[in-house]
Amino acid sequence: MSATALRKTTLRPLIREFLAPRITRYRWVSTAAETPVAVAIRPKVPLRERDCEFLDSALRVNQAGELAATLIYNAQIPLLTRSHPQLRPLMNHMYNQESGHFSTFNSLLAKHRVRPTALYPVWQLAATVLGWGTGWMGREAAMACTEAVETEIGGHYNGQVRLLLKMIGEMEARGEEVSDEIRYLVDTVRRIRDEELEHLDHAVKNDAKKADGHEILTSVIRGGCRAAIWISERV
């Protein structure tokens, strides 16, 4: 099976899993601490509304972003590896990581009953066009695309980690035990952030900054990423 066919067979089940998840769904919960008794039972307490809204928004935008990243690489790889076969292992490595991120956030959306962004089809089209366009422009432009996207996404995930840690601190200050789901989310976002920043390093090492019109190209892509993040958090 060709690499392109393998990517397609990998991506389609991920999208189907998102559209028709098989995971039991439940809402975010925390556990309030009580005075110790002979049998320590801690009743589950729903998170405050603003915390639920933040978590829903975070998962929604993260899933949309990972969908876009997967589709960008899916469009770039056939074009780049045809003229630069030495890039195949690196491109497949980055694609496989993005595919894993997408699958992770698909599962979290389903698990916590979070709706996806209403502009899901728009981001599908935009990401495919961006990937195809920068792949057609050549290796340096494709790497500049990765540089721009990962710069924005790395900062975005850093911001989420800070807000999640602040939320955890507030929960502990109120005498609530932080749920395993919240701690898992922090660890997951940190791991994915680190992998995205690894992609940024790969892009720079592979001449991203030598792309024609680098400053204009990356500024446009970064602006598009910021707009997509802002919209997906709200719509």
Overview of this protein structure:
This protein has 235 residues and is mainly alpha-helical. The chain has seven helices and three strands.
Task: Please give a handful of descriptors for the protein shown.
235 residues; 3-stranded antiparallel sheet; mainly alpha; 7 helices; single chain
What can be said about the biggest beta sheet?
3 strands, antiparallel
> Low-confidence parts, pLDDT < 50 over ≥5 residues?
16-27, 29-43
Q: Give the DSSP E fraction (strand runs of 2 or more residues).
A: under 5%
Task: State the distance separating the first and last CA atoms.
Answer: 39 Å
> What is the spatial order of strands in the main beta sheet?
2-1-3
Write the topology of this structure:
Elements: H1 3-19, E1 29-32, E2 44-46, H2 49-83, H3 88-111, H4 120-137, H5 139-173, E3 176-177, H6 180-205, H7 214-234
Antiparallel strand pairs: 1-2, 1-3
How would you sum up this structure in a few lines?
The chain is built from 7 helices and 3 strands. The chain is mostly helical and 235 residues long.
